[in-house]
Structures are given as C-alpha cells and as structure tokens.
Specification:
Layout: H1 3-24, E1 29-30, H2 31-40, H3 47-59, E2 63-68, E3 75-80, H4 82-107
Antiparallel strand pairs: 1-3, 2-3
Pfam family, one: PadR
Protein name: PadR family transcriptional regulator
Domain Transcription regulator PadR N-terminal: 19-89
C-alpha cells in the first residue's frame, strides 16, 4: 500500500474509532480490556491512541472514570454517563444513515430521483 493509501486509510479509521470506543463503554472497561474487546471485533487500537482518546472523551463529559484500587494493580475504569449515552445513540444513528448512503454511492446507485 502506498503512503497516500496508508494516510487515507488511517484518516478513515480515525473517524470511526470514537464511535467504536463509545460503543464498548456501555459497561465499565479499563484500557486493556477495552482494547481487547475492540481487537476481538477486528479493530486494533494502539495505547498511544486509546488513552488520549479516553481522556478527551472524559474532558468532553461523555465518559466518567473511576479508579478501582481493590486489586494489587489499580485500574481506571471508563463508562458512558447519561450525556455520553445520548451522544452515542445520536452518533450511531448518524453512522447508520451515512453508511447506507455511502453504500449506495459505492455501489454506483443514485438515489436522487431528479437525475
């Protein structure tokens, strides 16, 4: 794959990672467990991408984090809050609409009946 193709592929993936991460935070997850869940669905995410994304989602008040210090190794758990859940549902609906429209474009079908 050429550098341009790699760049475009990375750009395409970057736009979908937020939605992928939000989809998995309906139940509390710590970073490693989240990365594992995503990877089991075929989505790989580097730690250097995941943790800044989680911090950004927390700053945007979509995600709440808490520390679990009951284990020998403390873990920070992230979960959608009410605002995050509402936002995730809106993004999911937009994704479904956009992906259906894009599918039609990629198939070469024109759903605009004026043409």
């Amino acid at each position: 794959m050429s550098n341009l193709q790699n760049s475009l592929t990375t750009e395409l993936r970057r736009g979908t990672l937020t939605l992928a991460v939000l989809s998995q935070l309906r139940t509390p997850q710590y970073g490693y467990s989240l990365a594992q869940r995503l990877e089991s669905c075929g989505i790989t995410i580097d730690q250097s991408t995941l943790y800044p994304l989680l911090r950004r989602l927390e700053r945007q008040e979509l995600v709440t984090s808490t520390w679990d210090k009951t284990e020998s190794r403390p873990r920070r758990y992230y979960v959608l809050n009410e605002y995050g859940t509402e936002t995730f549902e809106q993004l999911k609906n937009e994704w479904e609409k956009t992906s259906q429209e894009l599918y039609l474009l990629l198939k070469g079908e024109n759903h605009d009946e004026t043409n």
